[in-house]
Amino acid sequence: xxxxxxxxxxxxxxxxxxxxxxxxxxxxxxPKKHLQILKQIPKxxxxxxxxxxxxxxxxxxxxxxxxxxxxxDGTMTLILSENGKREALRFxxxxxxxxxxxxxxxxxxxxxxxxxxxxKKLRNSLRFHFRQLGLVELQKSVLVCPYPCNKExxxxxxxxxxxxxxxxxxxxxxxxxxxxxxxxxxx
Length: 187
Fold this sequence. Notes:
Number of helices: 8
Structural class: alpha+beta
CATH class of the largest domain: Mainly Alpha
Helix content: 40-55%
Number of domains: 2
Strand order of the largest sheet: 4-5-3-6
Mean pLDDT: 79
Number of strands: 6
Protein name: Transcriptional repressor PaaX-like central Cas2-like domain-containing protein
CATH topology of the largest domain: Arc Repressor Mutant, subunit A
Order of helices and strands: HHHHEEHEHEEHEH
Radius of gyration: 20 Å
Domain Transcriptional repressor PaaX-like central Cas2-like: 102-177
Shape: elongated
Distance between the termini: 39 Å
InterPro entries: PaaX-like_central
């Protein structure tokens, strides 16, 4: 994956993320989310040099991360390919963070997964990304977090297409929670 990062420059990443924002916009029903997405797109788009944009789009087409769709009125639409969607998601997954609220709501978010041995790489990837987010292992495939993180967990689950292996629980108490309270500096 690191090699892929070197092949796709910052401008190409930005283009993929902007196209992905368009996809997210089409899938989002919340007007509040629409506004958040729409506010970010012009800022990023305005920062792009047009000549560099044309070269980057050509390169994305060659890499088959985007497809072109030509219209009768002479316009062209760039469409994110399935590979492009995965790349854009991967760029986001590497930067995800859980927002810590000012005050803990005294609830534990428990993520459990049971991935078959034949999918060991998937299991290791899930564990890696959940830990990277800040979740702490309670047991080998059971991680916990005191902060709201269901959206981030959902994102990772969707990214890896692992829905059937992962469960998310909201709990009021864990019998040995004191070490977790200390670990997350909640007291």
